[in-house]
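INFO  loader      accepted 1 record
INFO  loader      residues=189
INFO  predictor   begin
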Amino acid sequence: MSDRFLDDRRTGLEEAFFARQNEELRRRLVEAGAKNDRRHDLAEASHIQDTALLDRLLELGLGAETLSALTLVPLVLVAWADGDLSDLDRKAVMDAAALEGIHHRSPGYALLQGWLRTRPGPNLTAAWKDYVSALAKPLDLSARRELEHHVMDQARKVADASGGLLGLTSRISAAQFALISELSTAFHP
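INFO  predictor   done
INFO  writer      dumping tokens
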């Protein structure tokens, strides 16, 4: 009887072990499927086919529903370029976001709010440059320049948000100017 009891116990332990293993495998498969779905949706929305770039964008919390927030990355980066974010800088970024259709109920809004609360790291800058390079590559020179002008003009407005003397002089700092110049290079792959 004790052999039977030990066999039953061993069988129960083996079944529990394999059930946990199977559950872990199932969970990983579900996560991989969800990631593939998110990557596919982002590829559709962005027209980017580079899987590594899509994965980097997903790791940064960007997806098809938050893609519009990515257009505001230069504005956020320029607002933080001097090391802190003034209320005027924040307002300029949020005004630009509203013009891009990012409102408090849109998915990109929470992402943007996070970037305005905590200074984004270099991964966001690198991913944005790769995104813009991939986006700009198939465009002709005229379209690339138009896109660059639109995005970088908004960044300059944020940089100038602190305003000069009664708005008559520019207050774009050297750090902001250097960053705008650096970001502009992404439009010329």
